[in-house]
Amino acid sequence: MRETVRVMIPAEKIERRIDEIARDVSRDFAGKTITLICVLKGGVMFMVDLARKLNHTVELDFMDISSYGDSTESSGVIRIKKDLENPISGKNVLLVEDIIDSGRTLTRLRQHLLAQSPACLKICALLDKPDRRAVDVDVVKPDYIGFVIPDEFVVGYGLDYAQRYRNLSYIGVLEFHEE
Ligand code: IMP
Ligand code: MG
């Protein structure tokens, strides 16, 4: 099988959208220190680009999780491979995710973070595939969304297929062709 990537969201469009999100975040967190939490590895590009556009005091922390279940469906049971380095109790937290698909991962992650009593917890996702949602939509409503996309498997700008394509500057649809 040969793989190609069809451009869905070009790099310039991602950058413009992150400008807008940064403005919204700055307004909502005015006068506060923001603790950005990135979910590795997919959220990394988005987090660093967003962080550089925030005219705030910003702290960065990272989590790495894996979800049990088969490879195409997340189960919602998450295993924490790397937890936060610093406590978030009393902090103003913005969770930065690459993509919300079924919403199961985010539901569990949200519970995990809320249990640590942050002053506030907002959720930011670069991409949202609402057609795929398998959990209560009100529970995992992100506060900031980059782009709503159709139910297609996308790669690039942090997102991978078998650990590849994360370094693309754009987001594209992965397509398979018979040789
Ligand atoms: P959820 O628990 O089903 O919402 O799973 C979300 C996670 O699945 C994301 O953080 C991604 O790691 C992965 N994922 C979902 N859709 C895609 C996609 O189209 N491309 C790459 N990874 C994806
Ligand atoms: Mg992810």
Summarize the structure.
This protein has 179 residues and is of the alpha/beta class. It has helices spanning 11-28, 44-52, 104-114; strands spanning 2-9, 34-40, 58-67, 78-82, 92-100, 120-128, 144-148, 154-155, 171-177.
Q: What is the makeup of the main sheet?
A: 6 strands, mixed
Mean pLDDT: 93
Identify the CATH architecture.
Answer: 3-Layer(aba) Sandwich
Q: Which strand order do you get reading across the main beta sheet?
A: 4-3-2-5-6-7
**Which outline best applies?**
globular
- H/E element string? EHEHEEEHEEEE
Low-pLDDT stretches: none
In this entry the ligands are:
inosinic acid, magnesium ion
Distance between the termini: 6 Å
CATH class label: Alpha Beta
Describe the 3D structure:
- With 179 residues, the chain is α/β, with parallel strands linked by helices.
- The protein contains three helices and nine strands.
- It has a single domain, classed as 3-Layer(aba) Sandwich (Rossmann fold), CATH 3.40.50.
- 21% of the residues lie in helices and 35% in strands.
- The strands form two sheets. The protein has a six-stranded mixed beta sheet, sandwiched between helices. The protein has a three-stranded antiparallel beta sheet with strand order 1-9-8.
- Helix 1 packs across helix 2.
- The radius of gyration is 16 Å and the shape is globular.
- The N and C termini lie close together (6 Å).
- Bound molecules: inosinic acid and magnesium ion.
- Inosinic acid (IMP) binds next to strand 5, helix 3 and strand 8.
